[in-house]
Design brief:
Among the domains are: 26-61, N-terminal domain of TfIIb (Single Sheet); 63-100, no CATH class. Helix content is 43%, strand content 11%. It is built from 3 helices and 3 strands; from the N terminus they run H-E-E-E-H-H. The protein has helices at residues 10-24, 64-78, 83-100; strands at 37-41, 44-47, 53-55. The longest helix is centred in the last third of the chain and has 18 residues, at 83-100. The mean pLDDT is 83. The structure holds zinc ion (ZN). Zinc ion (ZN) binds at residues 29, 31-32, 34, 47, 49-50, 52.
């Protein structure tokens, strides 16, 4: 269902559709492993089955940057953080962020 038209060209429209799909989707619950986690509000996710609440991405349950920070925390707890490992993770975060950024809309050719 189209509620309103997204202006700005095909790239913006594509990005909008992708976000809407991620927002409406059901995700697998990390607590009870049923596919019933749904978005409650911005960054808040709730399992309809066991009632667990999770903090996550604004439009999807987990984001690339969020997953990386979780890994970083896990390594920190284990005390296995080396300088090389942190540098490797920083490079990965940078890569994930550039991939996540939507492309600039195409310039209108008629103007
Ligand atoms: Zn659950």
């Amino acid at each position: 269902m189209v509620r309103f038209h997204v202006r700005g060209g095909p790239n913006l429209r594509k990005a909008y559709t992708k976000i809407q799909k991620a927002k409406k989707a059901r995700y697998i619950c990390p607590a009870c492993s049923k596919k019933s986690v749904r978005r409650e509000s911005v960054g808040m996710w709730k399992c309809r089955s066991c009632g667990s609440k999770f903090a996550g991405g604004a439009y999807e349950l987990s984001t690339p940057t969020g997953r990386l920070s979780q890994r970083l925390l896990l390594e920190l707890k284990k005390g296995a953080l080396s300088k090389e490992y942190i540098e490797k993770l920083e490079a990965e975060i940078e890569k994930a962020e550039t991939e996540a950024e939507p492309q600039a809309p195409e310039q209108a050719k008629s103007e």
